[in-house]
Amino acid sequence: MRYRRQLIVIALLTLLAGALCVPSCAQPGKQLEKGFLDPPGSARPHTWWHWMDGNVTKEGITLDLEAMKHVGIGGAQIFQVGVGIPKGPVIYNSPEWRALIQHAIREADRLGLEICMHNCAGWSSSGAPWVTPENAMQMLVSSEMRVQGPAKVDAVLPQPPTRVVYYRDAAVLAFKTPPAEAALSPDEAPRVTASAGNFDASKVLDGDPGTVAGLSLTSREKADYVQFEFPQPIAARSLVIVPGGGGGARGELQASEDGVTFRKV
Question: Which of 36, 103, 110, 242 has the most CB atoms around its CB within 10 Å?
Fold first, then answer.
């Protein structure tokens, strides 16, 4: 009987402890909810803050930072960007640029924001006046020349594309042309037409990415096209389109056996 009373007392104490825990155990949940509604500075997101190739002003800096504060951003990382945009008046790392950096830090401090910045200009922290072209990020480019063999060939390959007047030869490779890449004979070459009357079809098949054939839009209601008409049916492995200026465009590839009825490929 005594053993049973001890069990009852323990059970009552356990229930009492659970009852006492209800308000205190619910407190972390309320704190979590409050943290989501009003996050502390340490939990607020940061954002990239692109300074666009010298197009920076004190007024713009203040407005940007105040907008970040308004939407709940906790800080920003200053990142120098200078590709495909008009160059502004502020030169990177100049006294004026440094003054703007100081202004940004003071304004961020006023608003309670955190400021970080790249250690130099350029993507992947790779740009600076002391980084010469041979030490900068590079790309592998190529050109080709088709010759008829077997024969001894003495020729100069076309110059591949270059940037900042820098180029170095890496290798010269010679190999038998795969059948799928064999050049079409004049009798097999396609007739190229387009919906735009000023389209220069000769630049489409010249193999030179430096030449451009402009396809002007004739109507917003009707799709424009470039058409390749072959004398005989062919098996096409791929179609490569190099958009002018590095941009992109939407479209679709269609095929036809009679030149009248087309199906989407």
Answer: 103
One-letter amino acid identity for 75?
G
- Quick check: 37 and 43 in contact, CB under 8 A? no
90 vs 52: CA distance, rounded Å: 10
Q: Could you please report the per-residue DSSP string of 18-45?
A: HHHHHHHHHHHHHHHHHHHHS--GGGS-
**37-90 residue pLDDT tens:** 888 878 889 999 999 989 999 999 999 999 999 999 999 999 888 777 888 999
Give yes or no for a contact between 97 and 90, defined as CB atoms under 8 angstroms apart: yes
Tens-digit pLDDT profile for residues 133-150: 888 888 899 888 888 888
Q: Are 198 and 212 in contact (CB under 8 A)?
A: no
Q: Whole-angstrom Cα distance, residue 216 to residue 114?
A: 48
Backbone torsions φ then ψ of 258, nearest 5 degrees: -120, 0
pTM, 2 dp:
0.48
